[in-house]
User: Fold Adenine DNA glycosylase from Flavobacterium laiguense.
Amino acid sequence: MNFYNTLNKWYLQNKRDLPWRNTTDPYPIWLSEIMLQQTRVAQGTPYFLSFTTVFPTVFDLANASEEQVLKLWQGLGYYSRARNLHKTAQTVAHEMGGIFPDNYTDLLKLKGIGEYTAAAIASFSYNECVPVVDGNVFRVLSRYFDLETDIAQASAKKEFAALAFELMPKANPAQFNQAIMEFGALQCVPKSPNCSICVFNSSCAALQKNKVDQLPVKSKKLKVRNRYFNYIVAEDDLQHTIIQKRTAKGIWHNLYEFPLIETDTVEDFDCISRHIQKDFFQENEIVSLFEYNSESIVHKLSHQHLYIKFWKVSLKGTVQNGINLETVKTFPFPIVIHNFIEDKL
Assistant:
């Protein structure tokens, strides 16, 4: 109880005024939790405000097109979250009458809702006694109790959830969950936390043992794959260009891009020129070719580093299925392509 009392006092004095905190409505709580997966609050908040303005209810979100949803999500990354969000909205709106399940077990059945998100919605909306376990909770508990459990192991979540459940006051699980996550986000941060001002500095085991920077233990390293993308930005006599939808599974599924040449390494002008002449624009004469960026733009995803070049191809005549620039700007693109369009075209 001492742990909770100290934590709760800190929380009431330091908590941020966030737009999804002043409600028990599961719709905005669900939206915020999906958006904040792998995303900082400062980055996610404008998207949350945009979504709740354009789609004020789950019915509005369900009735939108996937392209509308992806366009509004553009720049937030991890686009499978947006696709799952849309599908779940349709399930809740059309099969459940717009009412979210009111318990952890049933929330888990919805697409895109895992253990952490189900626990967050169940506790924040319905005050169910179920602990949230995210990176913040792993960090706070592993340091406070000096737990060397490898959090990359599947069994770790169960161990930390059991500990959090023990510490949780059963009368107010929602505030405990909010408080421990906020403490991890603001005070017990991953690198160089200011332990001198921490409310737990007299009782934190990791601080007493000088192990704060060693916890939590996480062994599994993500293997990063390098990929080399060459985007062909065509322009015909009408100043029309060509885009295509990424329909294959993988990154940026159902977003749009320019015609793509993917190579095994960074390639020079001659190589890309041969590719274009061999594989593209057979019906049009190529007037000129140049690269917009001589140095690759490095776009880092969690598991891939993309080395991206954009190549301008001027064509004689008109291209099949060409579209003008204003129309192009209405489509959802990966943020790196969106930024190129805004900056260069």
